[in-house]
Amino acid sequence: xxxxxxxxxxxxxxxxxxxxxxxxxxxxxxxxxxxxxxxxxxxxxxxxxxxxxxxxxxxxxxxxxxxxxxxxxxxxxxxxxxxxxxxxxxxxxxxxxxxxxxxxxxxxxxxxxxxxxxxxxxxxxxxxxxxxxxxxxxxxxxxxxxxxxxxxxxxxxxxxxxxxxxxxxxxxxxxxxxxxxxxxxxxxxxxxxxxxxxxxxxxxxxxxxxxxxxxxxxxxxxxxxxxxxxxxxxxxxxxxxxxxxxxxxxxxxxxxxxxxxxxxxxxxxxxxxxxxxxxxxxxxxxxxxxxxxxxxxxxxxxxxxxxxxxxxxxxxxxxxxxxxxxxxxxxxxxxxxxxxxxxxxxxxxxxxxxxxxxxxxxxxxxxxxxxxxxxxxxxxxxxxxxxxxxxxxxxxxxxxxxxxxxxxxxxxxxxxxxxxxxxxxxxxxxxxxxxxxxxxxxxxxxxxxxxxxxxxxxxxxxxxxxxxxxxxxxxxxxxxxxxxxxxxxx
Amino acid sequence: xxxxxxxxxxxxxxxxxxxxxxxxxxxxxxxxxxxxxxxxxxxxxxxxxxxxxxxxxxxxxxxxxxxxxxxxxxxxxxxxxxxxxxxxxxxxxxxxxxxxxxxxxxxxxxxxxxxxxxxxxxxxxxxxxxxxxxxxxxxxxxxxxxxxxxxxxxxxxxxxxxxxxxxxxxxxxxxxxxxxxxxxxxxxxxxxxxxxxxxxxxxxxxxxxxxxxxxxxxxxxxxxxxxxxxxxxxxxxxxxxxxxxxxxxxxxxxxxxxxxxxxxxxxxxxxxxxxxxxxxxxxxxxxxxxxxxxxxxxxxxxxxxxxxxxxxxxxxxxxxxxxxxxxxxxxxxxxxxxxxxxxxxxxxxxxxxxxxxxxxxxxxxxxxxxxxxxxxxxxxxxxxxxxxxxxxxxxxxxxxxxxxxxxxxxxxxxxxxxxxxxxxxxxxxxxxxxxxxxxxxxxxxxxxxxxxxxxxxxxxxxxxxxxxxxxxxxxxxxxx
Lengths: 490, 480
Prior knowledge:
The complex is a heterodimer. In chain A, 39% of the residues lie in helices and 13% in strands. Chain A is an alpha/beta fold. Chain A has a domain at 3-257: Amidase signature (AS) enzymes, CATH 3.90.1300. In chain A, strands 1-3-2-4-6-5-10-11-9-7-8 form an eleven-stranded mixed β-sheet, with helices on both faces. In chain A, helix 2 (22-40) packs antiparallel against helix 3. Chain B is of the alpha+beta class. Chain B folds into three domains: 3-291, no CATH class; 300-413, no CATH class; 421-479, Arc Repressor Mutant, subunit A, CATH 1.10.10.410. In chain B, 40% of the residues lie in helices and 20% in strands. Chain B has 15 helices and 16 strands. In chain B, strand 12, helix 3 (223-242) and strand 13 (250-255) form a beta-alpha-beta unit. In chain B, helix 7 (327-340) runs antiparallel to helix 8 (343-361) and helix 9 packs antiparallel against helix 10. Chain B is elongated. The termini of chain B are far apart. At the A-B interface, helix 9 of A face loops of B.
């Protein structure tokens, strides 16, 4: 039995019937990390010793009955922009290379309350800005399906680690597709929950009105389980919604008869690769077979949602990243004679080029004289995008699109062309703009054997519907039984 | 042309720290004076990932302030980020309010230069977080940041440019301060910086329609400095104009030692704060019931207290005005008269000797070191005849220096009034013997001589003799 190939619900079962122990599981993952990390580079920080110690401790407590809980002793990986008390939280930036958070993010408190074991912090594009994890200040993460290709981003470390069996599941963050797109590139499941469903407290902010923490898992059932852990109102986050707690695993009914699925034709047009289109069309046929009512319709937002996204995200980022000033924590330049030098040199030396590009863009669109033309306009378009989605959801239960226009591209292929990199977000950003939930599940591979992701979008707080629609498809096509990452080197 | 040909135009921005228990966006203590960087948490330190949550009390206090200054309350308000880099701003932005302040279009009434009632418009009152405190020149010339003050809730009250003199500016500030004290939203301790003003000032020829170019003086926190700074800055601007020069729009720093203002930064350096709605916070929506409820529970304001003093207690309008100008003075008046049961005497002592000493010492009523109980006890000692009014004045002086039980003071100082008939008689005899001429004068019908003799006797007893008894005994003896 390959422990690291098991899903969490399988691990849970084997723990409860004593086929496996917590220590065995943790040990298997640590071994796997040690074996694969040099090829994949998924981690920024591996908590090897800490994890083994914690595994023993939790195991003893579970055996003595001191602690209970389904997920006690289950390992997890955490994207490195989620604050972990006493552990480095770097955002894959030189700016925070030596930053140790003095507090736990709310999601980490929840993870710790379940007595899960944090195996380490996962690589990402610097401050979550990027779609390939090539913008990490430390190293590039590689795609476990083909190590010459990117894992996607910005949660590329998290998606690659799950795909490579280095963690059973992981927490990522998604501002414009940063969970869904790498999940698609790495052939795993990734969900961006509705804005406000998961507390953002302790998530290092990129764009506050778009950011959301979510699960990256091997399958939909695990996704529902991890969602159970991290959701819930948090009084420390004013934008978190106060709603009744739901057990999302109960929504996996494996039945979608009569479900109405809308196919927005604009998401299948120019720029979408033929292979992606073809696999998506096969998926649509599968849904018809499964009893769904599928209909094509027009959702004419794709053209301006990307521009809207980059204006809002950069504007908020330019303000959110101001606190990295070299004064209280983080990188401080050794080259200064006065205060202005500290600011300019610290930020010039410690931010990467993509972060700088977005700060400059955001500063520009908020400047007096430009605010109305850019930021205000973008907010108006945002309202329009929300209205278009609302209209669509009056007719459909879910909307089905590709997650990304292509499969994973080669390392270095787009990293010097920001505009082309931004276009990789075209299918995902409108979901963040409208604050909706979206899930990406694998629906096939291209000729090179690289996974293709299908995105399902629901109306606000319709995670149960989304999970069921995803689960039903997954059970029908059994993607992970048919395709496995091969760590190809060519 | 001279100063008389010009009109001074002043608008004031007042920052008042609210006396809520906790800070505006986190649950850290809002208490003043703690060890540096002890009232801090990830939120007010601007740690990565930390998020603000608006303290509802801050909204309530701001609405109170708005209602007490006749403002319209914005039912649909929000918080905006004001972005700038400075070490006192840990998030690199202040969370303030840009285009939808909680309160707007209000006014307060003050006395103008001639003592006539004048309305000063209030443009807006908004909520925001205070910056950290920078302690300069510590550790070999470096600056240290104390984040205890970061996130202390502030209301900023912006006046219309309706103020025309330093006196009006002072009256406006005193009135605003007393209102905030009355409604208990701020302790307004100027020496602790919890009530401070930015002065926008310009001058123009009398009768001119257009405003002149203005300068700004920031963070002024004493009435005396504010008055001096206004006088200096008005003179400076008039002189420049008279010399044919132009006023530069700039921020100027008032230097209390030299009594001058100095240019700090000009418009060229004007910052673009890139205001935008804070996405970490949700809209502030207030119901009519919420606002009505605050309105109905507003504490007594100076105006109504004044009316009560005149109509129920029988004080003169002037006395009532002076007492209610400071909530502390007014509270002291009420407490003192409640204990000593004599409103008239309590008012007299507070408005004469106590106020005189406050002026001499240049301190505010809230800095009076003694308690109402001590003052009341002093008044009761006079009424009982234990001490004379003359000694009372000395007791007040003593209370300012070393506040304690007045009975103890007079015992220590030996100021107890001599009311013993034998002792008084002895003094009277002695003075009569020593002043035969005065005795003769009195007997010749010169009543004035009695006053002289009593005065001599008081001198002899160092003011301790009971003056009524002295008077009576002198007359008796002289009639013999």
